[in-house]
Amino acid sequence: MRKELFKHEIAILKDTFGRLLRRHAQTNLVKLINKTHPADLAIVFRYFNDEEQKQVFSLMQANDHTVEFLVELDDTLIEKILDTENAERVSSLIQNASTNDQSYILGSLKEEQAQSVIDLLKKEEQEEIEEIMAYPQDSAGSMMATDVFTLYQNTTCGDALKTLQDQQEAEMVFYLYITDEDDSLVGVASLRALATTPSNTLLKDIMEKRVHSVRPETDQEDVAQIVAQYNYLAVPVIDGDGRLLGIVTVDDVVDVIREEATEDFLQMAGAGKDREILLKSSWENAKVRLPWLFASWIGGVMAAYIIGKYENMLESMIALAAFIPIIIGMGGNIGTQSSTIIVRGMATGRIEIGNEFKVLLKELRVGLILGVLYGIMLGIFANFKFLGSDPMLGVVVGLSICSSMLLATAVGTFTPLILRKLDIDPAVATGPFVTTSIDILGVLLYFMIAGLLLTL
Amino acid sequence: MRKELFKHEIAILKDTFGRLLRRHAQTNLVKLINKTHPADLAIVFRYFNDEEQKQVFSLMQANDHTVEFLVELDDTLIEKILDTENAERVSSLIQNASTNDQSYILGSLKEEQAQSVIDLLKKEEQEEIEEIMAYPQDSAGSMMATDVFTLYQNTTCGDALKTLQDQQEAEMVFYLYITDEDDSLVGVASLRALATTPSNTLLKDIMEKRVHSVRPETDQEDVAQIVAQYNYLAVPVIDGDGRLLGIVTVDDVVDVIREEATEDFLQMAGAGKDREILLKSSWENAKVRLPWLFASWIGGVMAAYIIGKYENMLESMIALAAFIPIIIGMGGNIGTQSSTIIVRGMATGRIEIGNEFKVLLKELRVGLILGVLYGIMLGIFANFKFLGSDPMLGVVVGLSICSSMLLATAVGTFTPLILRKLDIDPAVATGPFVTTSIDILGVLLYFMIAGLLLTL
């Protein structure tokens, strides 16, 4: 019910924008833009065509609202709308934004354009941005907020509270990070602890000294795992000397978790890893999806080659051809189930080093149970449908489907486990390998079993 | 690098527990349990065998640490370890927990056991728990925290700050929720706004009046979407009269997002939706995966039936059989790519009502590009490999693969879009439908094209 309501609001917003855009009602458009939450505006913006996007964006002023709107967009879209803007407009848009918002926006632009914008910013801002942008993409360093509110450990709670009240900059104060004389992070305290402690107590006496922290090089997925596991609102980023560089906040972690899941999904289906695949052209789309399909094509060609080798067998019993789809299909499907369970289990930390063997055994048992079941069913069907054929045909197809399914669970389980050992992302390579090898092995097994059991 | 470190810590913890368990070193085990973060303990706990799990849990005392540990476990595991405990122990364990932790733990137990535990709790707690447990599973009501700190709108900021400092209960104060004389939620203020405003200002003059709220029936996925979209730390849950019932906090939303992604993954592969599939027995596993495989079995049987119908054609040109795997395989794979992009695009809100047609057209273009490419490649291979055959064989297989891939993109795109229109979860039903229909349609198309172009 509530979902409808939420979608309903977005739909109304979309209609209102559409009407004003058609009427070129500039003044009303400006009013509506300013009244709309930046996150909502980012959603509605996707539905505009290129012309409308240009029109709406040209009406947006250089203020916080516009920056918030921009950072809610995906990088592909940022690049698209800022591509035609000159460096002056872009730099005036982002000059008052936080460093991590600035670097996110600049990171979405073409390198050349980004550089001319950076050249227009203030010296100190330039340095900060370049520092952030030097961290690897998708690392804690590239997503951290650098304007963190810190306090010295020998400050009293009373003084800390006063300092806090004077702070205008650090908008989202989640935790109070406490440092020693060398600016090293030594502890953390909650806002509540500060407010409920006698005002002459020193911070170092109330702070929690065990702080989970990450390094700027830490991958965003690992940051997300720490935040998710310990229910943190933010996690500090420190350098090699223990100095606080910034914090990664939970709202960014929420985005990371959503995006990583989407990437894993797309990669497992061989559809690239670009979340914004829908914004890309058909050509780019095709290019990304080509490699997996090529693996599958090679598998199919090899299967054709194998079947060609057994041409004589097929000639004596043409009915054998009828069961090729089901034998590779059932194998491919159960293999995909196994590999999905394993890939996802590894991503969520449910499968770790140490329990792989147990997992493999269980998958094999599942493969055996389902293989025997569907093998018997298919054996009966084969003998019933192809009455004229050799009565052994049922045994052959039954056995083949059972062994193809058993083999598929093994391949589906083994492949991602081995890829991880080799430090290859299992989500990328598992899909093509599993289906392709079942295409080949399934057909081969089938004709070998037929050769053994049928007198042709 | 940091990932290794994090995993390293868990590995050490696992080893230490293992050693102490083997030595039955009770005193040291108790010490280690109390020293370990509940979230870490929950991770390590998965690796223990049944015996070890029992031993560790029997050493845990009735305190906050144990409750935090329990709520970090998945429901299957909670049920398993509490199943043999008597109602007295369970009720003493959870009696001081928050209502939503209590109801999460009780909701994981068998109904009978949960009821006997509830009977042992205090009257008022019983009522609160029963209220929470009455909300549908996976709704905002079932996951909200009910001990929310609220303030009356005519309170001054100074008084509010004092009241806040006396609060012991509401541990996680994210926002200050402000109500009117009827207890209706009328606004929200940040802790910072309170601290930085002159103390005689009334709350109603500083509060933000536009508050995004949800109903207790709201699905957790929609709650997650709101929190993610607006970067909230918590979202209030209100009843029909606008009264504040509780809040859903971002840490729970993080869990929801991870779990929903995992469920979608498993469902798309027809492996059920149970995140704890690894904890289930092989039989249960097989049972869950049976239905999709049955759909695929039916598809395979129908394909066998179709091929049987074209037996004469196969007899005259046995080479036709060799290309069956590649034609259905390429179709199945590109269809899976399309449906994955669509299912995930709908889950993340990238595909909405209104742009389906555009998406379908783009997929068809991608299907055409790749179909033509791989069709030509296969056509050349077929004529090269089966030199003895009809030269038209290359044209037949080339055309077949192209049309099978084009058709597959259409089916892969259409199916999830239509399922959503029918209010069926696209993640559940898309997978089996797409691969099964390509098995059938691909084979049918192939033989129809062969019948038209070959003179057999």
Key words describing this protein structure:
Tetracycline Repressor, domain 2; CBS-domain; homodimer; 68% helix; elongated; mainly alpha; 456 residues; MgtE N-terminal fold; two-stranded antiparallel sheet
Please state the average pLDDT score of chain A: 87
CATH superfamily caption of the largest domain in chain A: SLC41 divalent cation transporters, integral membrane domain
User: Which chain pair shows the most residues in contact?
Assistant: A-B, 126 and 125 residues
The residue fraction in helices of chain A comes out at 55-70%
Element pattern of chain A in H and E? HHHHHHHHHHHEHEEHHHEEHHHHHHHH
**CATH architecture classification of the largest domain in chain A:** Orthogonal Bundle
What general outline of chain A do the C-alpha atoms trace?
elongated
Oligomeric category: homodimer
Number of beta strands of chain A? 5
Q: At the third CATH level, what is the topology name of the largest domain in chain A?
A: Tetracycline Repressor, domain 2
The first-level CATH class name of the largest domain in chain A: Mainly Alpha
For the largest beta-sheet of chain A, the strand count, sense and barrel status come to: 3 strands, mixed
